[in-house]
Amino acid sequence: PVLYSYFRSSCSWRVRIALALKGVAYEVVPVNLLKDGGQQFSAEFKAVNPMQQVPALKIDGITLSQSLAIIHYLEETRPSPRLLPQDPKKRAQVRMIADHIASGIQPIQNLGILKQIGEKKVEWAQNCITSGFQALEQILQHTAGRYCVGDEVSMADLCLVPQVANAERFKVDMAPYPIITRINKALLELEAFKVSHPSRQPDTPADLRA
C-alpha cells in the first residue's frame, strides 16, 4: 500500500491511525500542501486524486480517497481489530460522531477555507471548532466510556484526536470540554496514535519532530 499524506493533515492522520491499528505496512508519499503553491494541485497528484486532497491510498489494486471511505474499506477487508462495534446502536453512534467531526467541523476550518478567510482565519477556526466541540461534548455525555463510544477504540476516536490537535494549534480553550480532553489523553497513550502522530512522520519538519 502507498499512502499519499501530509504530516499535519488531520484527514491523513485518521488513516495513518487505522493502518497502524490494523498492522498494515505502507509506503508514504508526502504531498506538501504549502510548498510550490500546494503540491496537491500538481497534474501528477490530480491523476491520483481528482479532488486534489490528501489522503489517498493505493491498496489492493485500487486507489481510494476520502478518509472515512478508506477506513471503512480497511474495516471490511482487515476486520481485526474492529473499528465499528457489532451492536447496531453503538455502530450508529460511532458513525454519527465520526461524521460530526469529518463533515461538521474539519472541512470548515481546513486550509482551503482558511486561505479564503484571510486575516481573520484564526478567529474563524476557533469559532468553527468551538461550536462543534460544544455539541460533541454533549453527545459524549451519553456515549463515552474510556473512549468516544464505550471502551473500544472506534472510527470516532480516529477522528477525535486529529481534531483536538487542530483545536490546540488554533489555541482553542479546551477547559469547557473535559470529556473530549480525557478521551484524547487516553488515546494518545496508545501506540497506534503515537506512531501516526504528525510529529513522527517522514515529512515532518525538523523543528516539529518529536
UniProtKB/TrEMBL annotation:
Locations listed in the record: Cytoplasm
N-terminal signal peptide: none
Keywords assigned: Cytoplasm, Isomerase, Phenylalanine catabolism, Transferase, Tyrosine catabolism
EC number(s) given by UniProt: 2.5.1.18, 5.2.1.2
Positions of the GST N-terminal domain: 1-82
The UniProt record lists the keyword Isomerase: yes
Protein name per its UniProtKB record: Maleylacetoacetate isomerase
Gene: Gstz1
